[in-house]
Design brief:
mainly beta; four-stranded antiparallel β-sheet
């Protein structure tokens, strides 16, 4: 089992940047693919980005491609989401999640961190 704690959210102006972090505790962080998701008010949770166990493969939602970058440091048990060129549509609670499979079946979730982009 793994516990996940997100940090780095906050209020930022449109066009600005934020970097989210997700610290994992527990065993074998490198055995999990990791993902970032977000949920805006009144909307369903949506996929943002995914990174493979080694960090060599990444995937992004079309809405963030070219603006967001997911990365991980297995030595620090941490996954990051660098968010650039933020706009109001990026306002949401951001969650990290751990997937012990290769099938995008996320078994563990953090509590979320709020990102608010002011226009």
């Amino acid at each position: 089992q793994v516990q996940l704690v997100e940090s780095g959210g906050g209020l930022v102006q449109a066009g600005g940047s934020l970097r989210l972090s997700c610290a994992a505790s527990g065993r074998s962080f490198s055995s999990y693919a990791m993902g970032w998701f977000r949920q805006a008010p009144g909307k369903e949770r949506e996929f943002v980005a995914r990174i493979s166990r080694s960090g060599s493969i990444t995937r992004y939602a079309d809405s963030v491609k070219g603006r967001f970058t997911i990365a991980r440091d297995n030595a620090k048990n941490t996954v990051y989401l660098q968010m650039n060129s933020l706009n109001a549509e990026d306002t949401a609670v951001y969650y990290c999640a751990a997937d012990p499979t290769i099938y995008s079946q996320y078994a563990y979730w953090g509590q979320g961190t709020q990102v608010t982009v002011s226009s």
